[in-house]
Amino acid sequence: MTMTTDAADATGSPGDSPDEEAQPTTSWVHRIGLDRFSGLYLLAAFFIFFGLTESNFLIWNGSIEFVLTEKVIVVMLALAFLVPLTTGTFDLSIGATMALSLVIVNKMALETDLPDGVGALVGMLACLAIGAINGFIVVKLRVNSFIATLGMSQVIAALIRRIHDGGNITNAFGERYINFGKSSLFSFKWPWSDTIIELPYYFFFGLFVATMIWYVLEHTPVGRKMFATGGNPEAARLSGVKTDRLSWGSLIASAGIAGFAGLIYSWKFATYTSSVGPPLLFTAVGAVFFGASQLKGRPNVWGTIIAVYVLAFGIKGIGLRYPTEIDWMQPMFEGLVLIIAVAVASRQAVVKVNRRKPTSSDDETSRAVEHEVQPSPLSTLSNEHPPPETHN
Amino acid sequence: MGASHRWGRFVSNLLVVRDLTKSFPGQVALDNFDIEIGAGRTHALVGQNGSGKSTFIKILAGFHQPDPGSVAELAGNTLHLGDGDEAEAAGVRFVHQDLGLVDTLNAIENISMGAGYTTGLFGRINWKADRQRAADGLEALGFGDVNIDVPVGALAPSEKTAIALTRALFDWEDKAHLLVLDEPTASLPGADVERLFSAIRLLKERGVAILYVSHHLDEVFEIADDVSVLRDGKRVTTSPTADLDHNRLIELMIGHKLERIEHRSVAKVGETAGLSVEAIRGGTIGNLDLTVQPGEIVGVAGITGSGREMVAPFITGQIPSESGNVIVCGTPIPNYDPHAAIQAGLAFVPADRASQGIIPLESVSNNLTLADIGRNWRGGRLRHSEERAETGVWIDRLQIKTAGTEIPIGALSGGNQQKVLFGRTLRLTPRVLVLDEPTSGIDVKAKEQILTLIDEAAGMGAAVLVVSTDTDELVQVAHRIVIMVGGTVAAELSGAEMTTEHVERAQLQSMKASTS
Questions:
Q1: Which of A151, A380, B81, B430 is the most buried (most CB within 10 A)?
Q2: Secondary structure letter of residue B294 according to DSSP
Q3: CATH 1.10.3470 fits A35-356+368-382, yes or no
Q4: CB-based contacts of A336-341 (< 8 A; 24+ apart in sequence)
Q5: Residue A316 to residue A324: CA distance in whole angstroms
Q6: What is the model's pLDDT at position B187?
Q7: How confident is the model at residue A374, as a pLDDT?
Q8: A interface mutation test: which of B322, B361, B367, B383 has the most A CBs within 10 A?
Q9: Angle, to 10 degrees, between the axis of helix A201-219 and the axis of helix A221-231?
Q10: Beta bridge partners of B24
């Protein structure tokens, strides 16, 4: 379709008339940032409510430290999903990839005399190889990324079973390896209580990785090109963007980040169980989409991190308040928060696009081409990987 | 008004509208608009984007309510404007540009969706009756050969249009009809347009009145009996088409004469060619050789299927060619590699703005800087404020109408999106500029601005290749026009020979020669 103006001019839906411009220009929801900052509002509400009603909630050792450190793993997994998503590529194999690095590092620590760090390195290399294979399947074989990585997820699961028969591995690591990730970077005593504030190294490793991803996505040409690829792969390619290379690279990066999530797990829990990895996929993917409704209207690093912690602290509070019900309330809560946050943000985005139409008397400029602008924050979803070139 | 006097000579008007005003906050879209459409006549409605023609159609269809005070009659009966159901019942039917067909259903099912399924006992669909209705309806439009059993997605564009027409007019035997055709040829290749026109002529013979809305003035002259021109919400004139010519019609639409642009650019012959294309082969192109000198604007004309539509995609690496070389200022560029082409100095505006040009959700600024983001990357950081400032400069220079640099480009009109894409390429200060249908779907004023930009680019020394189905535009802007026929360059025109008539005759004459 080349006739976008005409389409809007002649067949546009009744919603694109200038009527909307007469409406109040800012809703209160938008003014106080309830759309873009809904996560932060929710987080504040949880702290106030559970802080007042549950004596254990606001205590550092009671829940805060635990949630902050444990969820670094989910943050990493969510960022692993986010990176290829910016180029319009799905990576559903991240959960399995995380489990792969975890099983390798445990198994090598258990069964070889090599330093544990070597196992970590081998685990990371294996994950990067998985990412490279994913990229090959998506870019060269032109398999839809959703299908390719879904299939790869099972392939990795098979590899893991081949490596290890399924039982738990515990206490495989030496002290040096655990201390490398787990010792505290700093500690200080809270002035008016006995609580000692400590955060382990791996928390800051995670923070560093997140900052790097944010920097690349938002402040470098590479990131800009990744979002362009996700937004319209063919237009990006014709503008000189090497879209295949970016998709491929983003899949390698996501596998690497997922592998690192496995290492953080090994530092935090020092165990391997077969239930680690894939079950975290929903939480991670959900956080990316919830996070896309935060801060800006597209998937982004800090929004994703906010989303992970909003969900985690909410679940922690519910768990303290209804300890016997948390089993079913956790998925209910995760699902509802995701849907509601995205619904609020989508509604706001629609209003915003309509409002932003210039009020020039020449209505040529004022036609929002609504069939083209899908103002949902999730609209990168609608862009699949470019199909194979067909010509005749 | 003189025009309405002229209308007195028609015996019957099917639709009469008087004093139709529609105001939106801050603007009047239609200002005391009158129109009369004769029974069995084809009436074209033309005007620039924003002139109010879409508002009129939307009022007819009941999407908008008119301001009080308007009067309308359809076949002698009062018609309440703004009531879509009443208009539908009275026989006003619409076929919109996107047709509204379900691609996965066949013609019978698509037609029955509009006309209502014929049902028998227990609500069972009477497929035999529905099949008959579909076949008869298409037969009556001269489309009796359409396969009504396959999903319509597999049919030719003109066949799909015929199915949409059949659906809109399923009860045409029973009552008078006004058919509103809204840009019906926008997605039709050349040969299909002719088939659609024969169907329209058949409808006319059956007494269906047609309101034909189009940007393509050639079509207006070919198919319409009468034409009404809208400008700024007012009817400027209504006249039999035969009393107007092309230039006069444009003048009426834009309110002033369309000037052939004064070339400031001059071809610098004798230097290294800016662009050479050697023996390109593939798709509909059998063999293409082409040279464009720095400072020269070369137009490429040709009917659809002549290879014209693949010239730019092969040169720019959008699709892979089978063989041949593209050389940009002495540097051969690899096949199927837009990145390498851009590095060599070739910038490109693709034909399909929506699918190949814009990143709809990204900002105007991000779209404009996409082809060279690195320019504002310094000290390890993208300088967002410099990007915005640079974009602001381009917005001024290209007269882009936008509410700012950070709004999504998808919210701009087509003409302004196209200007942003021009900004994206001109910002590269290209040595070779390849433009594929640079003004498709944009209005006359934006088109003039874009043609001026093309000349300016050539004036700065770029070798410019313009591929277009709009012959007038090529004649206006090019130094020289090559005509594609049967997959190769069949003729070349320049100087005084380069007129619309000559170009169009060359396209068609050579076609006869090549088919005989």
A1: B430
A2: T
A3: yes
A4: A337/A42, A337/A290, A337/A310, A337/A311, A338/A286, A338/A289, A338/A290, A341/A38, A341/A39, A341/A290, A341/A293, A341/A294, A341/A307
A5: 13
A6: 63
A7: 38
A8: B361
A9: 70
A10: B27
Residue B184 to residue A7: CA distance in whole angstroms: 11
pTM given for the model: 0.77
Q: Do B377 and A220 touch (CB under 8 A)?
A: yes
The string of DSSP codes covering A63-106 is: IIHHHHHHTHHHHHHHHHHHHHHHTT---TTHHHHHHHHHHHHH
**8 A C-beta contact, residue B301 and residue B308:** yes
**Residue B370: is its pLDDT beyond 90?**
yes
CA separation for the pair A209, B290 (Å, rounded): 52
Q: Based on C-alpha coordinates, what's the Rg of chain A?
A: 23
Q: How far is it, in rounded angstroms, from Cα B443 to Cα B46?
A: 11
pLDDT tens digits for range B93-122 = 888 877 888 888 998 888 888 777 877 777
Contact B53 A10 (CB under 8 A): yes
Confirm if A260 and B357 have CB atoms less than 8 A apart: no
Q: What is the pLDDT of residues B405-432, one digit of tens each?
A: 999 998 888 788 999 999 999 999 999 9
Domains and CATH numbers, chain B: 2-91+175-254 (3.40.50.300), 102-171 (no CATH), 275-515 (3.40.50.300)
Distance (Å, rounded) from C-alpha A51 to C-alpha A30?
Answer: 28
- Per-position DSSP letters for B194-211, written without gaps between them: HHHHHHHHHHHHTT-EEE
pLDDT at B6 over 50: no
With pLDDT > 70 as the criterion, what percentage of chain B qualifies?
Answer: 90
Q: What does DSSP assign to residue B408? A: B
B260 CB-contact burial (10 Å; exposed 0-12 / middle 13-18 / buried 19+): exposed
Query: What SS3 state is found at B67?
Result: coil
Nearest CA in chain B to A368: B411
Across the interface, whether the CB atoms of B58 and A14 are under 8 A apart is answered: yes
Q: What one-character DSSP code corresponds to residue A388?
A: P
CB atoms inside a 10 Å sphere around CB B54: 29
Residue A357 pLDDT greater than 60, yes or no: no
- DSSP result, A311-367: HHHHHHHHHHH-TTTHHHHHHHHHHHHHHHHHHHHHHHHHHHHHHTS---SSTTTT-
Asked whether the beta carbons of B436 and B394 are under 8 A apart, the reply is: no
Nearest residue in chain B measured CA to CA from A232 = B359
Q: How far apart are CA A271 and CA A65, in angstroms?
A: 20
- Give the residue-averaged pLDDT of A300-309: 95
Domain ranges, ordered by start, for chain A? 35-356+368-382
For A365, which residue in chain B has the nearest alpha carbon? B413
Element (H, E) at B477: helix B471-477
Tokens of A31: 């003014």
User: What are the helix (H) ranges across B186-344?
Assistant: 190-205, 217-223, 246-254, 308-316, 338-343
d(CA B398, CA B417) in angstroms, rounded, equals: 11
Buried b (16+ CB within 10 A) or exposed e, A42-79: bbeebeeebeeebeebeeeebbbbebbbebbbbbbbbb
Question: How do beta strands B13-24 and B27-38 pair?
Answer: antiparallel
Please state the rounded mean pLDDT for residues B23-29: 74
Helices in B217-303 by DSSP H: which ranges?
217-223, 246-254
The distance of B486 to chain A (nearest Cα, Å) reads 15
Place of tokens 């509204």: B100
**How many other C-beta atoms are found inside a 10 Å radius of the C-beta of residue B149?**
10
Of the candidates A302, A305, A60, A69, the one whose C-alpha atom is nearest the C-alpha of residue A185 is: A69
Q: Which two tokens stand for residue A148?
A: 């390719």
Q: ipTM above 0.85?
A: no
Q: How far is Cα of residue B299 from the mean position of the Cα atoms in its chain?
A: 19
Contact B82, B172 (CB under 8 A): no
- Name which of B36, B44, B46, B28 is nearest B12 in CA terms: B36
